[in-house]
Design goal:
Layout lengths: L7 H7 L8 H20 L5 E4 L7 E3 L5 H8 L4 H13 L2 H41 L9
Antiparallel strand pairs: 1-2
């Protein structure tokens, strides 16, 4: 269906933390499959089809449609492929997909939380060392 450029969809849903394999990598891979299904089957997008001819030069878009529906309407699939696609679409519950995404996000955040806290503490310590090395005095005027 729709290919995600530079894996942007998984990063949008899986955040931009640093994950270590294999645990986080497995969760990200599973998240990628679920996000792909949700985006391709249930999220309608609009495609630019033309430009206006006036001075503004605005884009003209078609009616928002899911990639699933666009593929179905394209006429490029055989009847067997259409039947398989239709059975996949009917077998998936969008609410369940959302719950799976939220569960994966919670797991990723909990796994990354400790690493982030350690990194934040290290950054804070380095900033304090820098300030101490500069002998910065801050005077507050009493008004």
């Amino acid at each position: 269906m729709v290919d995600s450029k530079s894996n942007h969809a998984v990063r949008d849903y899986g955040f931009h933390y640093r994950y270590d394999p294999p645990d986080e990598g497995d969760i990200l891979a599973a998240l990628g499959k679920v996000v792909s299904l949700k985006l391709n089957l249930f999220n309608a997008i609009k495609k630019p089809i033309d430009w206006t001819s006036d001075a503004t030069g605005k884009r003209i878009y078609d009616i928002p449609t899911t990639p699933y529906q666009r593929l179905k309407d394209s006429g490029s699939l055989s009847q067997l492929q259409l039947d398989e696609l239709e059975s996949l679409y009917r077998s998936i519950n969008p609410a369940q997909l959302t719950r799976q995404i939220l569960t994966s996000q919670d797991r990723l955040v909990s796994l990354a939380k400790d690493k982030i806290l350690v990194m934040a503490a290290e950054i804070e310590a380095k900033q304090q060392e820098r300030l101490v090395g500069q002998n910065i005095e801050i005077k507050i005027k009493a008004s």
